[in-house]
Amino acid sequence: MDIRAQVSMVFHLDKCIGCHTCSVACKNIWTDRKGAEYMWWNNVETKPGTGYPTLWEDQEKYKGGWQKEGADLRLKLQSRLGTLGNIFFNPYLPTVDDYYEPWTYEYENLFNAPEGDDQPTARAVSLISGKHMEIEAGPNWDDDLGGSPVYAANDPNLEKLTEEERRLLNELERMVFFYLPRICNHCLNPGCVAACPAGALYKRGEDGIVLLSQEKCRAWRMCISGCPYKKTYYNWSTGKSEKCILCYPRLESGQAPACFHSCVGRIRYLGLLLYDAERIEETAKVSDESLVEAQRAIIQDPFDSRVIAAAKANGISDAMLDSARKSPVYKFVKQWRLALPLHPDFRTLPMLFYVPPMLPVQAAVKDGNYEIPGAHGAAPMFSSLERARMPLRFLASLFAAGNEEVVAAVYRKLMAVRIYMRAQRVKDVPETEVQQALTQAQTTPAEAEAIWRLTSMPTFEERFVVPPLAREMAIESMVDPFTRKQEAGFGKREAPERRW
User: Fold this and answer.
1) Do 278 and 242 reside in the same domain of the chain?
2) Residue 47 belongs to what domain range?
3) pLDDT tens figures, 417-453
4) What is the pLDDT of residues 369-407, one digit of tens each?
5) Which of 288, 246, 493 is nearest to 406 (CA)?
6) Is residue 233 a contact partner of residue 225, using CB atoms and an 8 Å limit?
7) Is residue 86's pLDDT more than 80?
8) 153 and 52 in a common domain
9) Distance of CA 321 to the CA centre of its chain
10) Which of 120, 183, 256, 382 has the fewest CB atoms nearer than 10 Å to its CB?
11) What is the pTM for the complete model shown?
12) How many domains does the chain have?
């Protein structure tokens, strides 16, 4: 048992309002500079939709993540020999058209244009070439359809839906959206780290955050293709790749990352997970239908004495273990089994989990009356799995590698919590219906109350249990005695990076 610590996240999609405050907060802090204009380390996508960059989920196009070949696991991108052959030409890179060409406007022309009969204008100018351009795309171009049904119709997750399901989903009066915020998943088995020929990407040993060394990056850009989530970007100005760093300077000072702190809907939770590193390969090799359960199994119980002993043997402090026991991520992912990984079929074992959005209430106009299906009790108030406008098959493609039962189990519990709390507050749901919902969801009134409280009424400290990373101690523990003598007065030497 090789117990390690991982700073992990949960996004509760039922609460996301698509305001992009998180994206703007990240942009203002990290990517507001030349060469990074098009980078959105945090972006929010409308689902169904094609996302950013366009069709990033289509790994037949981009070759990201891992794939099983018999009993082996290999990068979908290429082998080591393939990396050597393609090192000066990567055919699977997104182009600027898959993102968008960043631009500004000739604002000066509004003030300095010569006198004339026409009102002066501020034409769009490319931030890359400096030439005038026609704006054809931009960040979040397809928000809420973006004026066209084409974006939703081309969502890769619709591929396995029946024609009837597609028709119902795309009827204008039935169209259902939800928002999908995305940052780097800081995976346990990251494709970007494995794909980099220069070894510039690595996971920090004390917290699992995936970082990219600007000194070692040689701009091969294999990391961009190797990441199936397309969360590594190339800075065309510096000639280096960049990515989300989970605001680790903020974490080291006890603060939540900027996008977490600024979130208007309070959808974001951060905490520590303990996992068994010896089981990474076997977990990534399981069949598609077992991926979610296998990823849950690799996460270890921070209250288990054996896990605690193994964690301490790896240098994980008591303070870190205490953070793991208080972690809201552990509750959502392991204890309550509500949060699911995004595209576990990429086999990178992402450490960002999502609570799927609740199914909307389905209604229709019949004989001139607006009717909600259901006869009594809670049925008129809530949708059902059988009559869902957002097909389970679509959600299973996103969060469960196609395993619909995994998603159905999550929804049964979410519905049970909603029915139980309505019975407690409004008192218009029969007790038999409440008990039936709790039994079907395999939950209890106490658990339902706890889920509701952490979802609806969490304090700042309950949402963000930032572990004491003690980075200075982590570096110190990796420095040899001779280096310590140098740093004590016999000369200085930079402390080595702590890697796997």
Assistant:
1) no
2) 8-97+140-252
3) 999 999 999 888 899 999 999 999 999 999 999 999 9
4) 655 554 344 544 555 676 566 788 999 999 999 999 999
5) 288
6) no
7) no
8) yes
9) 24
10) 120
11) 0.89
12) 2
